[in-house]
Amino acid sequence: MSNVYQRLSEQGLVLPPELVPPPGVVFPFEAVRVVGHRVYISGHGPQNPDGSLYAYRGKVGREVTEQQAYEAARLTALSILGSLHRELGDLNRIVAWNRVFGMVNAAPGFNRMPAVINGFSDVILSAFGPYIGAHSRSAVGLAELPFDIAVEVEAEVEIH
Amino acid sequence: MSNVYQRLSEQGLVLPPELVPPPGVVFPFEAVRVVGHRVYISGHGPQNPDGSLYAYRGKVGREVTEQQAYEAARLTALSILGSLHRELGDLNRIVAWNRVFGMVNAAPGFNRMPAVINGFSDVILSAFGPYIGAHSRSAVGLAELPFDIAVEVEAEVEIH
Amino acid sequence: MSNVYQRLSEQGLVLPPELVPPPGVVFPFEAVRVVGHRVYISGHGPQNPDGSLYAYRGKVGREVTEQQAYEAARLTALSILGSLHRELGDLNRIVAWNRVFGMVNAAPGFNRMPAVINGFSDVILSAFGPYIGAHSRSAVGLAELPFDIAVEVEAEVEIH
Questions:
Q1: C114–chain B Cβ distance below 8 A for any pair
Q2: A58 touches chain B (CB under 8 A)
Q3: Which CATH class is domain B4-159?
Q4: Percentage of residues in chain B with pLDDT exceeding 70?
Q5: How far is CA A82 from the centre of its chain?
Q6: What is the DSSP letter of A57?
Q7: pLDDT at C22
Q8: Which of B40, B143, B146 sits opposite C136 (nearest CB)?
Q9: So what CATH class is A4-16+30-159?
Q10: Would you say residue A112 has pLDDT above 50?
Q11: How many whole angstroms separate alpha carbon B33 and alpha carbon B39?
């Protein structure tokens, strides 16, 4: 069964509403930019169910545990799927996940970024299956992320 | 009016000459790489009017203020437009800004990268308008940037 | 002569076997993702000849010298070429190097990332020549890299 929404629903996963930026913050860019068959996805972070940015903020390995960061990466996947749904109208239009660039707000010495970003990959693979959901990936430690979010992911997908 | 050069001129914006690398530095790559309709833009930093790298160097939030970094992001946009002009011959060939990856040389604790990279987005949107100039974007904090530049941007655009 | 394998052989360069992940590590993504004519390459690091991750680990400018990091970047290029060979069957299918995103595990104050990532560019240019091997590039300093590898590169190439 290739219906993405059914797979998300079976796992109890819910897409959050559009991001509510912090007060005074202007985002003069698109959450999702479609150019031909290619879809460029801006850096997203984990959202609360009300659309605001996630409660787990801070450095992973210090204020945020690896397990919390894994959950933050799962929420980041849902944030991106929400943006894709609003822009594309139907997530089933996606024929391939091309690229996932996973950024972790790493405390000095924390080097388990792949285990964190697996939260993102796990959601994508469970929702899209091993063929469409397969993706290239990097998982690296950034010095700082906006609003001290624990995880940020930029990505690219292909549509027909 | 869709002429990019006219829009730049109306704002008094001038494209810098080709980058003059610091002494002894070899750059064995292209500033701009065209492959079919897609144009990959190497990481660029802010240039002085003589082509050298920008005077504002250092960590944003420490040696460089947020306002100076915003200006550095504007200069980085002009640096990229200069490279695109030299490679493409005509900036009006650009039909879409696909992706902007904004990197800020962030001092520990500085997390206002989006406000800095808005300097880049503002130049692109004012020069190309809201349709062609729309772009996906990330704005994140790097540990170190080459030559201690305050801002670096990598990007991708589409041409016909 | 455009045969990539001959050029590698003439320089005594050998492609490593598939990456052996550290114990307990799961990589739920593709080393190389082919979508149409475009090939997305996951972040790779330097490999030992037995396939494991490179011996030079740590911060460049502290535990790892610039010269060692340059060598790590060369090994990273070979790691990527190994993955491309296994996925594409023939490296001569590559018609263009589109994008190279070079990430250096930078010690505080180390800002010579371009000199490090030149190790990657030098291998690609010597194997593919100045036309196919030309690429856009960024070379920046990350706060942390997985497993404390000194260098990681993400890239994109074009095939026919």
A1: yes
A2: no
A3: alpha beta
A4: 98
A5: 10
A6: B
A7: 85
A8: B40
A9: alpha beta
A10: yes
A11: 6
